[in-house]
Amino acid sequence: MFRLPVALWALYALLLVVVVSGRPAHLAKQVSHFDLNVTESLGAPDCHERVIRYVNGVYPAPAITVNTGDRLRVTIRNRLESESISIHFHGVKQTGTPWSDGTSHISQNAIPPGKDMTLEFHVRDQAGTFLYHAHNAMQELSIFGALIVQDQKEDRKHFKYDGERTLVLSDYWHNSSIAQEQGLLGTPFKWIGDPQSILTNGITQFANCSTSGKLSPKAPNGGYAVTTVEKGKTYRFRIINAATLGFFRFDIPGHKMTVIEADGTLVEPRAIDHLEINAGQRYSVLITASSPSDKDYWMSTQAMWRPKSAPNGWSILRYSNSSKESTAPAHGIPPTSLPPKGPEISGWMDRHLVPLHKVRIPAPTGPTMQLNFSQINTGPVGANTVRWKIGRQSYVLPNQAMLLQHYNGTIKDMDPASKPIYVHKNRVVDILLQARVGTLNGVCEQHPFHLHGHSFWDLGGGNGTWNPTMRPDTKHAVIRDTLTVYPSPSAYFETPQPEGTGCGWRRLRFVADNPGAWMLHCHIVAHLVMGMATTFLVAPNDIPPLPANFPDWMTGGIH
Ligand code: C2O
Ligand code: CU
C-alpha cells in the first residue's frame, strides 16, 4: 500500500477521526459504519509522480471487511479539488436499495467537491471477494479498494486454510484521466495506449525509475508489494483485478494455485497453472507455502489480448516467521523477463470452472436480447471521431440520474441515446453479446462486461458470429457479475478483418428480480466513456420509494 507523506497524514488525522474497521466474525448481521474520506495530492506509486486519489490517506483505498448479512452504512466525503465522484460497490446486488449503487448518472448524481453522502445497504445472500471503486466517467478506477464479505461458516465447511491475503492488481498511466478522456472523445480520436505500470496493492517500480526525469523525491525507488506467508501454512489469496484496461495473467512461481471462488461464487477446487483475470473480476485461490523458504518468489502480472504489456507487474511472495503481514515495500531486483505467455486461448479459465453448489438454471422467459457492438465513426466525413455503439446506439449518460428521473416521471422525455431498456419483474433475461469489427482498425478486442444490480449465469461463448444452433454451456455456468467476450478470430496478433465481421460472442442469463435502474457496460473504462454501455429499468412499478433527504445535486453540482 502506498501512503501519504507523514506530515500530510498527521495533518489529515487531526482533521478527522477515521473509522474503517471490520466487525469481529461472531457479530454478524449488524450495521458496520465506514467513513471514506477521498483526497488528492501528489504521489508516486511507481516512482513517477502525479496527482493520485487517496481514501483515508492510503492508496489504493483501504480494504473493507464485513460479514454476509451485514448492513453497511458508508459515508463518502468528497475532498477533491474540483471533481464530483460517486463510489460503487462492484458485485453487491443492492437488493431493495437501488439508490445505493453509487453509479453517477444512473443511481444518483455525483457528489460535488466538499459534499458528503451516506449510502446504506445490506449484503444479503452474498459472500466472497468484491471491490469498490469510483463510478463517474474516466475517474472510474482512480479510486479503488477491496471489499471482502466473509462467510466463515460456509467457507470452512468446504475449504481448509490458515490465513488470507489480498492482492489488488491495477494498471497505471503517467498522464491524467482528464487528458485521456479528452483524447478519447476528441477529434481526431486519440487512444490512451498501454499503461506505463501494473501495480500490485498500489505499487511497483517503473522500468526507468533511476533514469526518469520525473522521478519523485517522495518515492525515489518505487517498490514492490510483499506478501508474507509462513512455511507449511495454506492461504486463501483473494485476487482482484481493479484495472481500467488490463486482462491479466497472474503467475506465482514454485507454488500451485487452486481456484475456489469466482466473483463471490464458490467453485469446485481446480488446480491451475496460472490465473487469468479480467478487469472487474475476482478469484480466490488456495496456496500452500511448502517451497524452500530462504528466497523470494516473484509473482507477476501481465496484460493479455493487447499488443504488449507493461513489463513491471511484479510483487514478492516471501516466507517469514511471523504470522503478521508486513506492508513495507521491498526493493529487490525482479527477473529480467515475465513468464512466457504462450498462445492466448479464449476462455481458458472459464472452461476450467464448475460451480460448487449446483443450482437449477431457469429457462429464459422471453426472446434473447442480442446486443451487437462495434466502434463507429460519428464525426463529419473524414474526421476521426470514434465511439462504441452497443445495441441501437452509443450510450450517452443522462445529466439527471436515471433513477431520479424515474421518480420525477421524466424518463419518457429522455434523449433516445440515454433511454433504458424496460424489463418486466422476474423476467429471465438472456443476453447475447456479439462483438463485430468496427470502423477503427479491423481488429477485435476483449471486453469485460459487468451488470449492476444482479448476478448472472455465464453461459459460455465462442468465436465469430453466434447462431441459434450454438447452445448455452450449462456445465460451466458459474454465477458471476463480470464476464469476458473474447476476441476471435481477429485479435491484435491476427489478420485484420473487414468491418461487420463477427468478433466473438458470449451469453449471460439473469433473473430481473431487483427493481431499479441498472447499467450493463464494458469495464474497460475507455470503452465505457466512449459509450459502451446500456441500461435496464427493471420493474419500474415495483421500485421502492426513494429515502427522504436523498441528495439531488444536479443543479448545484459539477459533472
Ligand atoms: Cu465495477 Cu459499473 O462497475
Ligand atoms: Cu470494451
From TrEMBL:
Keywords: Copper, Metal-binding, Oxidoreductase, Signal. One of its GO terms (molecular function) is oxidoreductase activity. Residues 39-153, 165-322, 410-541 form the Plastocyanin-like domain. Residues 1-22 form the signal peptide. It comes from the Eukaryota. The keyword Metal-binding applies. It holds the Pfam family Cu-oxidase. The keyword Ribosomal protein does not apply. PROSITE patterns: MULTICOPPER_OXIDASE1 (PS00079), MULTICOPPER_OXIDASE2 (PS00080). SUPFAM superfamilies: Cupredoxins (SSF49503). InterPro entries: Cu-oxidase-like_N (IPR011707), Cu-oxidase_2nd (IPR001117), Cu-oxidase_C (IPR011706), Cu-oxidase_fam (IPR045087), Cu_oxidase_CS (IPR033138), Cu_oxidase_Cu_BS (IPR002355), Cupredoxin (IPR008972). Residues 325-344 are annotated as: Disordered. PANTHER family: FI03373P-RELATED, MULTI-COPPER OXIDASE. Belongs to the multicopper oxidase family. This is L-ascorbate oxidase. It comes from Powellomyces hirtus. The lineage of its organism: Eukaryota, Fungi, Fungi incertae sedis, Chytridiomycota, Chytridiomycota incertae sedis.
